[in-house]
Write a structure and sequence with these properties.
Blueprint lengths: L9 E10 L2 E7 L8 E2 L2 E3 L6 H13 L2 E16 L5 E16 L8 E7 L1 H4 L6 H10 L6
Parallel strand pairs: 1-6
Antiparallel strand pairs: 1-2, 1-4, 2-3, 2-7, 5-6
């Protein structure tokens, strides 16, 4: 299915991954939001559970293994073109997670991947929903 002008919404899966008081972020390598830092994740595959998909996407984009701790949020992201047609439509399911193994390195469609202290995130040009979900994830941790 095409990501631009899709026939149906695309289910996006992501995680707020914490390790030693830092949050894992990826720099997007392709549209939408190419070049922008965001939470790691991607599209759910046919036949894959949400949890399987999140673990796979984190592994593919960052090279690490995670433990999922719980559902954080379901976000609707709809972008329209100048004529009002739906250009992108994602239903994004974000989980809280923690690092359990591996070294971070960018892979798949990520241009970069790194751990960031929460205070550093406010100086980055992040989507407001990203900041909100990261803050919400704190309820799973003492960070």
């Amino acid at each position: 299915m095409s990501r631009e002008y899709p026939a149906a919404p695309i289910v996006g899966l992501g995680a707020v991954v914490w390790h030693q008081g830092k949050v894992l972020m990826v720099q997007r390598g392709r549209p939408p939001r190419a070049g922008i830092w965001s939470l790691p994740g991607g599209a759910q595959l046919l036949g894959e559970t949400v949890e399987e998909g999140i673990r796979r996407e984190i592994r593919e984009e960052t090279g690490i293994e995670i433990e999922l701790l719980g559902l954080l949020e379901v976000i609707n992201s709809v972008q329209r073109d100048p004529e009002g047609r739906v250009l992108y439509h994602y239903t994004i399911i974000d989980y809280a997670a923690r690092w359990i193994g591996g070294e971070v390195q960018a892979g798949d469609d990520a241009a970069d991947a790194a751990w960031f202290a929460p205070d550093a995130l406010h100086g980055m040009e992040l989507w407001a929903e990203t900041i909100r979900v990261i803050e919400e994830s704190r309820r799973f941790f003492a960070v």
